[in-house]
Amino acid sequence: MKHIPLHIHECVLDRAMLEIEKNPDVEVGGKFVGYIRNSSPVTRRRKAKLADLEVEVCDYLDSGPGTSRSAVFHHPDTEYQLELFQRIEREFPGLAFIGLWHSHHPNGFPNLSRGDIQAHWGTVNSPRYDQEIMISSLAIDDTGILGGKTFAFPRGSEKYYEIAPDSIQVVRTRNDIHAAVEAHAKSLRSRTTSRTGGGTSTIDANDTDWRHTSEGQNSLARDQAWLAIHPGMQPYTRRDTVIWRGSVRRGSRVFQCAYTYPEDFPKSSPFAAASLVEEGIEVTISVDLAESRTRPQEFLMLLDELGDTMQNHIEKQIGDSRNQGEERDV
Fold it and tell me: How confident is the model over 243-270, as pLDDT tens digits?
């Protein structure tokens, strides 16, 4: 365990407990917002030490109206969370996304899953994440965040650490950030709509949403299991779709990939797309992945096909350049 000063505002703990109580059968969670302060300067020669850091979790962004979740997975509405954060950040410059919390209370699993860990490494080492560490709290049962475990994932490290419970302090002072989160979340939820034709219709997470059916949840859980071996792929929820996107390394090549569930699933199958840029050449191919049992293998076959296609293009370009050179010599 590591001793990292961690100050969590009381509203975070209360909201998490209430969320767990209201949703006994599905995982819940949210994204922490707050501040990570460093007591010593960080330079290119001197990276931040965990002992120098002090973390303040002021509140969290709820998962949003488009969240997809079951007893074994939790995918937030990332578009909603991004807009909510941008609104709050305008009022509190310097406020940052510093981590997240989620629960395993429906399944009782006492530790972070492999998928959780790989997703956290992907986030903290992303160029878009500008903090030295990412905080992850796991609520295991109805005792909430304090009754569970909290971890620190340092950027560029190969190890993550559980934060010692005696390093965690509850802050009970006035919290203006919490008031702003509540107000903006209420405003966003009241106007979350999608435009259809000339009018608008409210996006309502109800039983007609394929993500809330047993078929949809089982399919998502199976895909999450095999996609977890590609830590560069991160899940995003966008209206009625779930998309994993990011980079995948296979051999010496790094592919930019997307794996998408269509809005009308299961009528339409999930599909994968991959692109590769080498020697000034860009190639993109995609494929429908109808059979769930063979999706992991078909995904890798897609990358191999793309790699072969790229190699053919490069060889053709080299051949064309040689031919042009020979013609000039003649």
Answer: 888 889 999 999 999 898 988 888 889 9
Look at residues 80, 98, 104, 71 and name the one whose alpha carbon lies nearest to residue 236.
80
Q: Is residue 26 helix, strand or coil?
A: coil
> Of all helices (H) and strands (E), which one includes residue 140?
none
Given a contact cutoff of 8 angstroms between Cβ atoms, the answer to whether 67 and 164 are in contact is no
For 277, the 3-state DSSP assignment is: strand
pTM listed for this prediction? 0.66
- DSSP letter at 49? P
Q: What gap in Å lies between CA 213 and CA 69, rounded to an integer? A: 11
b (16+ CB within 10 A) / e for 155-189: beeeebbebeeebbeebeeebebbebbeebbeebe
What region does 122 belong to: left with phi over 0, alpha with psi -120 to 50, or beta?
A: alpha
CA proximity to 231, closest of 136, 109, 116, 103:
116
Residues composing the chain? 330
* Token pair 């060889």: residue: 315
Which residues have CB under 8 Å from 97's CB, separation 6+? 31, 32, 33, 85, 129, 131
